[in-house]
Amino acid sequence: MKVASHHLRCTECGAVITGDAVNSIFRCPQCNGLYDVIYPWSESVARPAAGPEHNLPNPSALRWLWQERRTSMLPVDQSGVWRFRDLLPIVSAPEKVVTLREGNTPLYDLPRCAKAAGVDWLLAKHQGMNPTGSFKDTGMTAALSVAADRGFEWVACASTGNTSAAMAAYAARAGLRSIVFIPEGKIAWGKLSQSMDYGALTIQLKTDFDGCVRILTELVTRFPIYLLNSVNPYRLEGQKTPAFEMMEQLDWQVPDHIIVPGGNLANSSALGKGFMEMRHLGMIPRAPKVSVIQAEGANPLYRWYTDSNRLMRPVTAETRATAIRIGNPASWRKAANVIDALGGWCEQVSEQEIALAKAQIGAEGVGCEPASAVTYAGLKKLVALGKVQREERTVLILTGHTLKDSNYTIDYHRGELLTEAENAQISAADQALHASLRKPPVVLDPDTDTVMRRLESHMKQAQPA
Ligand code: F0G
Questions:
Q1: Minimal-distance CA residue to ligand 1 atom 12
Q2: For labeling, which of 53, 150, 195, 305 is most exposed (least CB within 10 Å)?
Q3: Dist. CA 264 → ligand 1 center (Å)
């Protein structure tokens, strides 16, 4: 890794600064735009006229090196983020890296979900299989390593729960002190427990996620606290690496379509950046489409796409998928650029569709948190709209582990998740699917005959297709 091997470029006005010149809110002082990390080899960076390719990393050498590192015992090599460090040289030395061996997440096939959606091929990249149970670890190892490298003592984030869990864990590993701002009563308990377990100062604000962001943005201008929300462009450098890892896992055969949940809209931006960088470097011949799916009650990007004036209007967000209960997404412009550049869509899905999709993924033995299930619900919608064809090869990005929000799952199976009014809107076909998927716990007397009778009646029931 080399020092000063990158710059930051404003995604709005194009101003370029050095990494250490950035202000505490990671916004361009001229136009308030967010930054992207750029490298001497980035697509937009002019190279000397003579030998224009001389400073481009060599694709075959990189592939070989990344594969080779899999056999190493070094923590930076074992990390599924830092194994790709040649394309994210953002810390001054490998020893500065703070890692929990994140990444290295599985790619599962979902044959029953594929069949039910009307496609031949469907995979899920399960980012919930990261050390703290969400995709946030890949971004946090990157940005927190930069914070440690730059000598910060305090780090902070506003969060719907997963960012805070990841930040608290990585800060603890690095011996930094962390402060978490979460909307009171609006995050899943599993996530709240993590930030306490990892020793963060956890502040529950009586507001929503967007309110937490507002307060924290003011605080970091007054105290030397390093901001670890996804406006921090180094987060996205870590979060682009699952794109590299996915391509290795697919033996460099590019899928047609990647589907990502949309909240603050950084993850879709990061994965798109990863694919575009690989395409630019000649590692892949083309990039997949990237589609973003939002919950109907937290759908500002969807609205922007359907608004004839193309105005971004923040919404008051409401969804049981608490991870994506975000009404004013910071990275919406970056995400829209990715969707437009790669040719995907932005869709919205209802609470009923999210619940069904989550149960269907769970029934494949994979499981995920509600915010992740919007991807499958969105795929079904895109197929129904004729936007995705049967033979297209899609990868869903499952962002969080099912245990993050077990209350949601229990409520669903007990039939207590949706209101009567919501249930009444479900089609007969979907009602039947719900009925076959719901597995509420059965309470019986401790008597063998009673248990036998229950088992016999259970065995006669049809299994979901
Ligand atoms: N899925 C999960 C499980 C999440 O936790 C989040 C975001 C998203 C999807 C959306 O990703 O914001 O990059 O579009 N969670 C953040 C948090 C906001 O604070 O944990 P995004």
A1: 264
A2: 53
A3: 7
